[in-house]
């Protein structure tokens, strides 16, 4: 009984991060699933199923607050999904360790630019998007996700922000886009027999409640503090990728 309660709390914590920052939380979910006894490939596949649930809950929370730009989601996902599949295919021919380290340093730069850029007022009538750039964002986000196994949300938010979206809109739009990306990845891994729904269901209550709570909390936090928090997440993931690229064993 105590074990199940602990799992629910862990799921809630991960879901809270997902809803708060518009990310999948795979860098937290995968280690938890390996502790539950899953091999790494099955942990990754099952993690995507978990991300689908947390992203759906956080997307619902952001949709209620009208922090989502659907046109950006549709265009971005049309390019992200096939790009992610291509990235995953190319991993068979490349040494991704060096790429992981390089990408980690790139994320540090992204975090720096995110902090330095002044915040755009979160008023929908002031949001002007250059939709010609959205397909590029879709390709970059999807390809990097498939190639390096990182959450699309880690790139979605800063890339959406670079389009001129206020941070609240960048996070809300990322949550909805991430749901579709994770769902597509779940289907692919399920076909390969790499998804354990019994393990995902253990985390589901906490993930769903946490995702919804995170979306609500994000709406109440000052944009600059939200940017600082997201930048910190970027730095943590960047350091993890650099260490993995250098050959260190990182969970």
TrEMBL record:
The chain crosses the membrane at residues 7-37, 43-61, 68-92, 98-115, 136-161, 167-188, 200-218, 230-250. GO terms for cellular component: plasma membrane. It is a multi-pass membrane protein. InterPro entries: TM_pro_TauE-like (IPR002781). The keyword Transmembrane applies. It is found in: Cell membrane; Membrane. Keywords: Cell membrane, Membrane, Transmembrane, Transmembrane helix. Pfam families: TauE. Belongs to the 4-toluene sulfonate uptake permease (TSUP) (TC 2.A.102) family. This is Probable membrane transporter protein. It comes from Thermococcus barophilus (strain DSM 11836 / MP).
